[in-house]
Specification:
The protein has about 325 residues and is of the alpha/beta class. Helices cover about 40% and strands about 10% of the residues. It contains 15 helices and six strands.
Length: about 325
């Protein structure tokens, strides 16, 4: 019944210029009263005279505030709990630019971005913390983002058995990811290193192999080292050419693995000979392009680009590679 009333109000407002919400839509009425007030009169909400409307978003408030949100507004939004964890991650630079320096407010931001319950409720994955870390214009959130990234690992699926994670460290992997600008541009190698370290921490057993034309380094993941710090190892420095399949076959011959995950841009000088019979998931972090293996053939699968859902769907891709059947079949 309340939903029907809301829909009727929205339709009436569009068609008949009805501005006042019915009494039963109390939250909507409160929001309308707030938004209709002149900016100078909203100070009573900002200064704690009245609680902020529950339906108020920071985007709406920023758009309606001449000159944007100042330190007082950001402090009120943060301390009132109006900003979720994801919104806090997105706004760290805005908070810094507004010169928010109140120790209680800064502590509250750090507390919420390292609260396991907040991170779980927001379904934040480690990649969100990585992008925030790279985009940050100051260093004061570094410790918070590093701790939050480690906590967010628990939102990733777990992988049983032995997993070999191959990280392409060839020269082409020094290209930037996407077209975004940040204080520290994110290269394909940096992203591959981060994905490798995050994935390894969710495996029963994993080994990371850095390669170009040969295997350069073998890395044993150290769970006690933060994932952001681990991903900055010098072993991941890009260089040289690429022979993905020769390196993969060398690892396969050296010890048994249940699956292989190759983090690459798929620029390789060799091809798949078919000697590796275990599932091979090629993850092209640069996006879609010509696939280096026969995608769709048994035990060869492709993941392209990077999104927060990619790591979550990986177990289904691997399961398909092992059984030839998708979960819904």
């Amino acid at each position: 019944a309340k939903q029907s009333t809301l829909y009727r109000f929205l339709l009436d407002r569009r068609r008949h210029s009805v501005e006042q919400a019915p009494e039963s839509l109390a939250a909507t009425r409160t929001l309308r009263r707030f938004m209709d007030a002149p900016p100078e009169l909203r100070a009573s909400w900002r200064d704690g005279g009245e609680p902020l409307p529950s339906l108020l978003s920071w985007e709406r408030l920023a758009a309606a505030t001449p000159g944007g949100l100042d330190a007082a507004w950001w402090s009120t939004l943060i301390m009132s709990g109006q900003l979720g964890a994801f919104a806090l991650l997105r706004n760290l630079n805005n908070i810094d630019r507004a010169m928010v320096v109140d120790p209680a407010v800064v502590a509250e931001v750090s507390r919420r971005l390292t609260d396991p319950n907040e991170i779980k409720a927001a379904r934040l994955l480690p990649y969100r913390f990585l992008t925030a870390y790279k985009a940050a214009e100051s260093d004061r959130w570094n410790g918070t983002l590093e701790a939050g990234a480690d906590i967010a690992l628990t939102n990733l699926p777990a992988f049983s058995g032995r997993t070999a994670i191959m990280v392409d460290c060839s020269g082409s992997m020094s290209d930037p990811v996407g077209a975004g600008k940040s204080r520290q541009p994110l290269s394909l190698t940096s992203l591959a290193a981060f994905v490798a370290e995050a994935l390894a921490r969710r495996c029963d057993s994993a080994a990371i192999y850095c390669y170009e034309t040969t295997i350069l380094h073998t890395i044993t993941p150290k769970p006690h080292v933060g994932v952001l710090k681990a991903a900055s190892r010098p072993e991941y420095t890009p260089r040289g050419g690429t022979r993905t399949w020769a390196c993969l076959e060398a690892v396969n011959a050296s010890e048994p693995f249940d699956r292989f995950v190759v983090l690459t841009d798929e620029q390789t000088g060799d091809s798949d000979s078919g000697q590796v019979h275990r599932p091979v998931v090629t993850w092209n972090l640069a996006g879609y392009g010509q696939h280096q293996a026969h995608h769709g053939a048994r035990n060869r699968f492709l993941v392209s680009g990077y999104s927060d859902s990619a790591l979550q769907t990986l177990p289904d891709v691997i399961l398909h590679g092992s059984t030839g059947r998708w979960p819904w079949e």
